[in-house]
């Protein structure tokens, strides 16, 4: 297969590109604008692969997309490009509207034009796979419920509202124009190459540097964590095996309170990085409860039974094994980390956590 992947230089996209090139004979065209979150160093292990191409392109640029479709002639699109950080969507929603909504619209239109010109057989085989989030379903506060594929949409943040909007566009392009789409909505991912604005890598790196560990509100919020390589395997199964028009929820059955995640990281670091910054007795001493995220969703949890039953996918990694691998990966990959901790990243930390630039 020839697969056009958007956002392949991001956290999940790079795991998908690596997974496909290392485990299949498929060809990949990675289309990525390289925003602050895009990092070609995450693809160093596959950059020289003959089956891999990269194009630095904004998905809002329709003309460039048309050219890429016509040159590469993909059998499938896996659409991961997005602005993905909830806190950034609160402090500046514009990029989220632009990329997540307008960008998805432009990509759908480019895909539709290309698909319309294919012969019947190629039209039937073509897939547009939209990769989305469980955050479109909103908040499960105070219930034992799980998100299923039929849960109503109730997004809370500018980020989740923009992703919900993109999901609706994709379904409309299927129903109205017949574009052969599949959708997935996944829970919180974690693992190697995760940009350190998100909870797990932020806590690991702050702890190693003896900086405070910011826990929003009371830390009782719950997320359902999935190891990123399990997600990449699930996505490949969906794009290659799912029936057109289907949606799959993907999750790890790993509900954890934020404060417990932070404490688990501290305890792993006690074991794996016992030489602490000077003057620090325990990593947990760095925990700092800070002002809560506005509109903070209290609980997410995924029912992943449909993908298990239809496609036979189950996660391979438990939270314990996955978190240990992740902490070890950050300890072993200080060069990747130091390149990412650029001026732009420092600006974000200073603005978000009101840090003194010299901290
Ligand atoms: P990320 O922020 O790490 O990466 C996003 C990538 O998209 C970056 O490489 C960036 O350069 C690229 N990009 C951004 N705007 C672009 C544009 N206009 N044109 C082309 N490229 C652009 O995100 P991620 O965490 O890897 O998430 C990937 C996708 O998966 C997103 O659609 C996100 O909504 C979804 N998702 C993420 C999670 C999670 O826990 N991270 C969970 C479920 C779903
Ligand atoms: O559920 C899937 C979503 O998971 C994806 O769609 C998003 O792209 C991804 O960023 C993630 O969103 P979250 O908001 O859940 O992830 P984040 O890592 O930002 O935060 C996880 C939890 O930890 C959340 O309840 C907020 C809290 N938190 C986060 C940060 C950055 C803190 O307590 N302190 C922090 O400093």
From TrEMBL:
* Residues covered by the NAD(P)-binding domain: 4-326
A Pfam family cross-referenced in the UniProt record is: GDP_Man_Dehyd
Which GO biological-process labels does this protein carry? nucleotide-sugar metabolic process
- What enzyme category does the UniProt record give? lyase
Top-level division of the source organism's lineage: Bacteria
Note whether Transmembrane occurs among the keywords: no
How is this protein named in the record? Answer: dTDP-glucose 4,6-dehydratase
- Organism source for this protein? Acinetobacter bouvetii
Question: Quick one: which gene encodes this?
Answer: rfbB
């Amino acid at each position: 297969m020839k697969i056009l992947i958007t956002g392949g230089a991001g956290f999940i996209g790079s795991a998908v590109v690596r997974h496909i090139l290392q485990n299949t004979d498929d060809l990949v065209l990675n289309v990525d604008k390289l925003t602050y979150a895009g990092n070609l160093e995450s693809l160093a292990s596959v950059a020289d692969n003959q089956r891999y191409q990269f194009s630095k392109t904004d998905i809002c640029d329709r003309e460039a997309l048309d050219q890429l479709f016509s040159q590469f002639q993909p059998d499938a699109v896996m659409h991961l490009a997005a602005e993905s950080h909830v806190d950034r969507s609160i402090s500046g929603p514009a990029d989220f509207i632009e990329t997540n909504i307008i960008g998805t619209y432009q990509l759908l239109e480019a895909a539709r034009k290309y698909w319309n010109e294919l012969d019947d057989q190629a039209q039937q085989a073509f897939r547009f796979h939209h990769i989305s989030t469980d955050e479109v379903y909103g908040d499960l506060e105070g219930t034992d419920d799980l998100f299923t594929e039929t849960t109503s949409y109730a997004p809370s943040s500018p980020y989740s509202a923009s992703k919900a909007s993109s999901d609706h566009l994709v379904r409309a392009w299927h129903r109205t124009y017949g574009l052969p789409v599949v959708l997935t909505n996944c829970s919180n991912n974690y693992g190697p190459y995760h940009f350190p604005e998100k909870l797990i890598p932020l806590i690991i790196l702050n702890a190693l540097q003896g900086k405070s560990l910011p826990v929003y509100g009371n830390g009782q919020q719950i997320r359902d964590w999935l190891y990123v390589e399990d997600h990449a395997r699930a996505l490949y199964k969906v794009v290659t095996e799912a029936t057109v028009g289907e949606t799959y929820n993907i999750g790890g059955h790993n509900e954890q309170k934020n404060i417990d995640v932070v404490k688990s990281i501290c305890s792993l670091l006690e074991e794996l990085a016992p030489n602490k910054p000077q003057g620090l007795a325990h990593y947990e001493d760095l925990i700092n409860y800070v002002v809560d995220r506005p509109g903070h969703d209290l609980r997410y949890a995924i029912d992943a039974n449909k993908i298990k039953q239809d496609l036979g996918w189950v996660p391979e990694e438990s939270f314990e094994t996955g978190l240990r691998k992740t902490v070890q990966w950050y300890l072993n990959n200080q060069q990747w980390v130091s390149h990412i901790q650029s001026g732009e990243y420092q600006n974000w930390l200073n603005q978000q956590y009101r840090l003194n630039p010299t901290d």
